[in-house]
Amino acid sequence: MSRSTRFLAPILGILALALTGCAAPVTAAHDSTRAGDGTTTYPLTIENCGETVTFDQAPERIVLLESAPATILDGLGVLDRVVSLAGPFPDEYYDSGLAGRIDAIDTLSDRIDAAGHLTISAEVVLAQEPDLVLGLPDGLTRTGLLDGGSNTLVQPVYCPTGVEDTSFDSLYEQIEIYGQIFDRNDEAQELVADLKARVTDVESATANAPERTAAVLYPSAGGGPLYAYGRASMSQPQLEAAGFTNVFDDTPERVFEVSIEELIDRDPDVLILLYQGDDGGVEDEVRTLPGSDALRALTESNVLVQLFNFTEPPSPLSVVGLERIVERFGTGS
């Protein structure tokens, strides 16, 4: 069945007053029917989360188990190779053209557990006869999928071994790897150039910003743990480009549990709250924490609530998320 949810595009007038020349949120699609550039030599071997992955040819049947790579695939002109997808693909992520292309793809499952994780079996995935699976939800293994004939790629920030400090170069490198895999190296370079220009526009606009601090948080629903993002997350380069200091930039981990007392002690000027699915009053989750009324960001309403993929993992959506941050809080100049 095709997705019944309609994916409406955000009309981002992002930075309209503060910046000029910022592009629309998502890339223009290339001709997906043409042959590759002929610049990739197969078999191609890459390293992904410490695992060796070999491609004998460009993948032709993709199962997409997370939403973030969709913008890269579309930018390379290979989204039509996605035979099925699973999980939430929220309306706000895509422009109308990409929304329509995603809407036309068959959906295997949209079942999400209480923690926001996709639940799907290997049998359902392998029934699609993929040669590449993007994403590895709990319950699936690389070995099991490879035994069924499919390679698997995991976003580097989700590698079990962890990652070092993340930057926008992490995004550009990821796009270039996808370009190699699909023999769409020219398109990859075009996409990287566009994203670099947009990031540079923001950095130029915020270059003279006064000292400002921020925290990026993921509040759990129902009074569960509060998580913060450190140097290994994409929030670090986002905040730096937007003219902010991450109050948790002394923490090398990507994401970690933080107490309300620690957050109050660091007292960031602004809060960026991430969520998946329905926001479900994510700001209220923070406001109801004991002592949270001491946070200046809350008392002064300097809060941005946005969908998870606008920050993590590194994808073109992270650049949109950067632009949204500056749209919300200004350039500081």
From TrEMBL:
<feature type="domain" description="Fe/B12 periplasmic-binding">
    <location>
        <begin position="61"/>
        <end position="333"/>
    </location>
</feature>
<protein>
    <submittedName>
        <fullName>ABC transporter substrate-binding protein</fullName>
    </submittedName>
</protein>
<dbReference type="InterPro" id="IPR002491">
    <property type="entry name" value="ABC_transptr_periplasmic_BD"/>
</dbReference>
<dbReference type="Pfam" id="PF01497">
    <property type="entry name" value="Peripla_BP_2"/>
</dbReference>
<comment type="similarity">
    <text>Belongs to the bacterial solute-binding protein 8 family.</text>
</comment>
<feature type="signal peptide">
    <location>
        <begin position="1"/>
        <end position="23"/>
    </location>
</feature>
<dbReference type="InterPro" id="IPR050902">
    <property type="entry name" value="ABC_Transporter_SBP"/>
</dbReference>
<keyword id="KW-0732">Signal</keyword>
